[in-house]
Amino acid sequence: MVYIIAAVLMFGILIAIHELGHFLTAKSLGVRVNEFSIGMGPVLWKKQKKETQYSLRAFPVGGFCAMEGEDELSNDPHSFTSQPIWKRVMILFAGSGMNFLAGFLILLVLFSQAEVYRLPIISGFADGFPLQSQQGLMVGDEILKINGEPVYIYSDVALLFSRSGSEKDMDLVVLRDGKKMTLNNFPLRQREYTVDGKTQMRYGINFTQAEPTLGGWLHEAWFNAVDFVRLVRMGLTDLISGTAGFKDLSGPIGIVGAISQVGEQSDSAGDAARNIFYFAALIAVNLAVMNLLPIPALDGGRIFFLLVSSLITLVTRRTIDPKYEGYIHFAGFICMIGLMVVVAFNDIIRIFGSA
User: Fold this and answer.
1) 2, exposed or middle or buried, with CB in 10 Å at 0-12, 13-18, 19+?
2) Is 142 known to be catalytic?
3) What is the pLDDT of residues 138-184, one digit of tens each?
């Protein structure tokens, strides 16, 4: 139960951080904010300061930033719709920017605790590794790409190896003695190796360990955040290609369940906290990316509509009636609610089916 509560609070905090990004940017650009709320539902506390009401609401599941003229016409020169397009785009983008920043900072704190970390540089091979040669892999090789995907950090290697499949050859690019070397159709696969007297399925490659430094922490945190963005892209690509289906999607219910499971299976309270915070960083970056997709009702959809309508106005000298944008976003919102219901149903079936 403790982990479930922690997961719910995590979602609420990340959504509140998103709205804080909109709020701070709107204020700094001179846009009137009528209310900034932490939480949703009935008001527990409120305070009016100049034109903005600051409120704390009963349910810790997010918050909102209500800007003047955001969803309706307003003659106020400080309204959202009265601002030039670059200001509106910045305000809409700021929510996702804050989520990404939150994810990066969480990762930076987590990696600053690490005593060592690995690099995608080969330090050795398991006994019997068959592909060590001048035409294959050598100690000291740095893996730069796997099947066309860049390798930024050590964890990329396991991710991209796993996506390659067990029966397919790989295309590798390695850095050897300062020169890039391409290994196309390289037959690297898992096979049985004996490690400490135990037989394991492995690729048979060992990687270099490095002492932590400030530069290393920044590098690991930044590229872990970049990897989270790549995971979103890979997930969407898998959906479009049919590799994954709706049954593989997970929403808030499934994520709360996964976080609870991660916490309960951790060896200690400290490990549970680190794992949950890592999950929080992943969710923060996912929220940042997903919210910028050009889908109606999301910030990305609103930015896309702003750019398209500005282009139409520039070409035709005619302004699109804002009510049509409202219709489009409302339709997108209804579709999103429908998708969330389907995903929630799948999450419930998955949770109770595995119970």
Assistant:
1) exposed
2) no
3) 999 999 999 999 999 999 998 899 888 767 889 999 999 999 999 99
* Domain at 116-211: CATH code: 2.30.42.10
The single residue listed with the structure tokens 């601002």 is 83
Residues 77-100 have pLDDT tens digits of 999 988 999 999 999 999 999 999
Under DSSP, is residue 253 helix (H, G, I), strand (E, B) or coil?
helix
Phi, psi (deg, nearest 5) at residue 53: -95, 125
Task: Please say whether the dihedral angle defined by the alpha carbons of residues 86, 87, 88 and 94, taken in this order, is positive or negative.
Answer: positive
Is pLDDT above 90 for 323? Answer: no
Active-site residue, selected from the candidate residues 19, 35, 70, 325: 19
Q: Are β-strands 117-125 and 205-210 bridged in parallel, bridged antiparallel, or unpaired?
A: antiparallel
What burial letters (b/e) apply to 205-227, b meaning 16+ CB within 10 Å? bebbeeeeeeebbebbbbbbbbb
Q: Percent of the chain at pLDDT above 70? A: 93
Q: Where in the chain is the domain with CATH 2.30.42.10?
A: 116-211
